[in-house]
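Researcher: Let's do a round of design. I'm pasting the structure tokens now; please hold your answer until I've finished.
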């Protein structure tokens, strides 16, 4: 399997079986530098499991997976699990498990809008500030691919929009690829170049508008909810359709964050928690 010049990760026929059950199958995808790709799907659809396969935390049962040589990965989990009584400053958090130069930490914090926060206690940060600090930590390794697993869950709408604007700025500045998992479908449609609809297999993928019009997508998410999602008409009805249509257009608008999942679940909320003992991303994966 050849890897195109701009590709960071490519898979063909990727499959994962666990406990005698088929969890993922027929996964063909390519992640490219400079592209924002979002994976959507219902709970239990394999989103977090796919992320873990891509970074090498799980070994596929079948199929092929190739990463660019020396690929550096940065990771932002859904939330940080931290003992509030633990005295831990932002600069010390950025230096776990290995210390980083103070100037590098300062640059990372400035990049995410948290300049001057190095001496603050992590436990005292707001949800949005904590996500920005975790993003700064992921950026310390100058990642080629930034991975965000439900990284905006728990943020209000303004905080969510601000975080996605920041991700887009990081993508444009660093030229890295971005892979997100999200339930916020209305934001996904604005923040992504390409959307992958997953339910064990890839039901459909392509430019946001093309995916929102795809029969497979509508079968999975429904056609009527109202409110903030009215434009894209999503509901959480599920009909499993084995259709697999690909549209690779790139119309988009940028107006605008792998965990150690429990082995027998794919509950993205529960499985996407960072701890203070984790590394600053996954810089070494794929080498």
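Researcher: That's everything. Go ahead.
Model: Designed sequence:
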């Amino acid at each position: 399997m050849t890897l195109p010049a701009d590709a960071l990760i490519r898979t063909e026929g990727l499959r994962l079986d666990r406990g005698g059950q088929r969890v993922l199958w027929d996964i063909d995808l390519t992640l490219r530098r400079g592209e924002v790709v979002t994976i959507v799907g219902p709970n239990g659809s394999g989103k977090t499991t796919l992320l873990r396969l891509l970074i090498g935390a799980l070994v596929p049962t079948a199929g092929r997976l190739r990463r660019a040589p020396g690929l550096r990965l940065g990771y932002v989990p859904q939330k940080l699990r931290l003992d509030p009584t633990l005295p831990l400053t932002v600069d010390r958090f950025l230096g776990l498990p290995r210390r980083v130069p103070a100037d590098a930490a300062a640059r990372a914090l400035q990049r995410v809008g948290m300049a001057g926060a190095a001496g603050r206690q992590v436990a005292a940060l707001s949800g949005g500030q904590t996500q920005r600090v975790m993003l700064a930590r992921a950026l310390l390794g100058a990642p080629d691919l930034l991975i965000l697993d439900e990284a905006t869950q728990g943020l209000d709408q303004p905080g969510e929009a601000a975080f996605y604007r920041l991700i887009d700025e990081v993508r444009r500045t660093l030229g890295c690829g971005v892979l997100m998992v999200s339930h916020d479908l209305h934001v996904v449609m604005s923040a992504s170049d390409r959307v992958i609809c997953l339910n064990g297999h890839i039901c459909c993928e392509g430019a946001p508008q093309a995916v929102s019009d795809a029969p497979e997508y509508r079968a999975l998410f429904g056609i009527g909810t109202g409110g903030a999602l009215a434009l894209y008409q999503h509901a959480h009805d599920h009909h499993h359709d084995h259709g697999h249509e690909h549209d690779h257009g790139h119309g988009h608008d940028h107006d605008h964050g792998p965990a150690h999942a429990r082995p027998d679940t794919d509950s993205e909320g529960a499985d996407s928690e960072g701890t203070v003992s984790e590394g600053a991303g996954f810089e070494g994966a794929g080498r």
